[in-house]
Amino acid sequence: MKKRIAVLAAITLAIEVLTAETLPNGQDAPLLKMTNDEDGNKTAVLAQSFAVETKYGNLTAPATSKVVFYENGNVKSMQLEEAQEIETEAGKFTVNTRAEFYENGNIKLTFLEGTQQLETKAGTFKITATPSSGAALAKDKPLTFYENGTVKSAYLYGSSAPGERTATAKTLDGEMEIRTRNFITFYESGNLESAVPADGSTAEFLTKLKANAKFNSGSLLTFYESGKPKSFTPSSSLKHQLGFSTKARSEVVISEDGKIISCIPDRASTLKLDKQYWHLSPSMPFKNFEDNFPEEMTIDMTDNHFLFGSEQAGIYFDLEEGTPIMQGKTGKRPESDESARSVPYGVITLKFFSTKTLKSAVSRNPFVIKVGANGISTTNVEFNENFSLKKILLSPYAEAPMETTTVQISTAENPDVKVARKKYTSCILQKIYFTNGRIGCAIGSYSQVLQGNSKYYRPLSCIILFENGKIKDVVAKGAESLNVASELIFDDSGNPVAYTSKDNLGNERTFEIKK
């Protein structure tokens, strides 16, 4: 019986091989099957091991393995039956396990057999795809290439033996010791992009920052393509050129001319800007433009007031009639607010345009935007570059609500429900968008009262369109469609044409607004 089964299997296999197609690269091969995907790629399943033609010669794939081809016939990916030597633009490498290619035929990714040499502008390195113990292949440590053939990333070989824990890299600051058992990456030009400095090492540029600092253990050092340092993590704090200190063991980004442009402030850091001192919130990002004006900063306003749009503020603007004034105060965290105990309470994050006008303000505590005599309580506001309002997220705990935070919507026909009339109660606005300084549209929610044979309330969300400050149209949506995270999408004329929404899995979708 077993013999009969074996004979039948052999006959079936032979039939499958005889009916197989020719490979997309023109080779005749013993195939089990060929499939196509929607991108035009073809996948061939080999009946037996086969030498597949590539730009790097014939590479043997094992039986029953899949070889994927691009639409132009070049190999996209394949498994390798055994270790084979290939010659690339970056040198000769003995590779195994798997290889991936770009559409032009150049190699994209592969794994090395053992330890090999890599020649680069930054020096010669020992690289590997296996752990230092020589155990099973580490599949997350490939050798990768750019499409032009230069090496993109490689894993440095290292062991606990003396001399194997570090390697030497050439930089504009001279030779630098870097840690092995870590990735090293390169730009397409071949220049060094990133590496992990050796424990306790330092560099000339740290001295230029007037710091007696060393690289923090295990931190990443990145470079601009010019070869100048870009980001690093020092073991101790640095002195920012604006006068405050950075937080030790946190990432610092510097410009190509050596100025700090991004960091985390240390505790009790104070920034003097124009006429006022700002208390920077610790552990929150601080970014600045290369002229030292802040791009993003989080200030601690506990028991303090702030005001933008007036010369009373430390940062002030040339105002036109109707320009909003942002004002507010933050208090101490209520003892009853258990959910907020791990969240900074009296802070506000400010972002600025390069023209030094306010771009956005975000706070956990409500603050007030004043336009004329009206005040809008908000926790998130965005401005245009001329300091006119762009968008406001309304605070659920409005302290000084503007008239438009609650709007009345008149009775309207309901084509979806066979009842006499439909009535909308007051609509509570959640997010307001402005056009030319005036309210243009909003996202809101309301309760719908259906009248007829029965009465019941149904919560709905809606998009409200305004014209000259008055309601022009209401686009009703189901309660699951719109929420505070939803955003409106506008055409070139500033009219809303679609909105975004997230499902229960967090996937974002876009829906057209049908008026």
Automatic annotation (TrEMBL):
The keyword Signal belongs to this UniProt entry's keyword annotation: yes
Record keywords: Signal
Name the UniProt record assigns to this protein: OstA family protein
Signal peptide stretch: 1-19
Domain of life: Bacteria
